[in-house]
Amino acid sequence: MKLNLRILTALACLAVAACESRPPLVTMPAKREPHVLFTRASVLDVATGHMNAGVDVLISGDRIVAIGAQGSVTAPEGTRRIDASGATLLPGLIDSHGHVGNSSAPPWANEFPDPDRNLQSYLYCGVTTVLDPADLASEAYDRRDDVAAGKLLGPAIFTAGPMLTADGGHPVPVIDSLAPWWIRWYVRGQAVRQIDSPERAREAVAELHGESTDFIKVAVDSIPDGAPRIRRELLGAIVDEAHRRGLRAVAHIGTLADAIDAGESGIDAYMHMIYKDVLSPADVARVAAFKIPMVATMGVFENYALVGQRTREPSALEVETVAPEILAAFEAVPADGVPAIFRQYFDKLRTQRRQWRDNIRALREAGVTILAGSDTQSGVFPGPGLHREMALLIETGMTPADVIRAATLDAARFLQKSEDPDFGIVAPGKRADLLLVEGNPSFQIAALSRIRAVMKGGVVLERHAVARAPAAN
CA nearest 125: which of 443, 412, 464? Predict the structure, then answer.
């Protein structure tokens, strides 16, 4: 009998009395307007970085139907008008490495994942599309389909489902060290497919293809250091079988050797930057020659490098979307808060922070397309994590316009394998997944977090910040 993670989680919450009813972060309006007109907007052309001021944008159904100078767009009777003076209208953000089924609480908080809440948090923060490169079997596909059918409120999801890895490879050690013993067997079996032969590699891809997966995800990196790493011939069999079935494959990498093995195997995207090695000019040229996009995920490594090193200041979006007790739990790391197998790994990350920025800068200058992704997990919250990632990408020399394109048009082009995707840009005929923010984010990336409105599929969502207890007198 196939057990359902939502049922297991619900039972666990009942057992420990840890789950409480929480008001939603986003809701659908009571009445959906068939037409919406944004007036006096500054519209960001994410393809060029150019800002078009004084623009009216008409939405009908789930599509952008007209864009013109202020006062030039004729709207049907009864159209809802939104004054966008002083604000920028841009495409909804795309997180190219989100994990809908993860918990972002610290391990010592014993917080169970709440996927539905995660979906709301993404939307609250303006993330209207997520590539989830590793989630539990069946849960991932059902959730994706429920969102697409309008049964569940959330960003559009592209998912890889369970991750393929070496026998005992990442993330098996992570699951074994963090998951409670009584659910560990289930999570390991549903989240990972361990590969020990080319035949098993092809079987696993075939199984996921049968589940209607969007991508195949394979772990190449060794986490923690010394954990089993997938052999080259197994990696090649996975990618070959994926391509034979019309699927693209993405690889979790960490070293230069990981990137080369994955690149020579024909991988379609790197999930993570090369964060364990300092790249020479020759190394950069070799990786760039593959012409494979890279989802940097600087923020997740920065997060773990700084565990226990300084006070973690929550961002404004984290304060608005995360329960205060969870944010407070990060303030003091218990002596046993970090599993022993990860302490050395985190210490090493701390020494590598500068090289991450240098590697990304060099790879991008050599022509590698950098995409924005957060890698949602402990300390990396769904939605706020992408905003943190975008701020870090600025430190690699990318301009705000570059970073916004990495989280919109470039990501949409990759997801749809098209230079002219259905979303990721504000243009007539495109899907009306939009974000309205105060100020000019092409000048200051922090403006992206000053959200005035989020539109998903032509609907302006109602956003509800987490209620805070009043301050003591």
Answer: 464
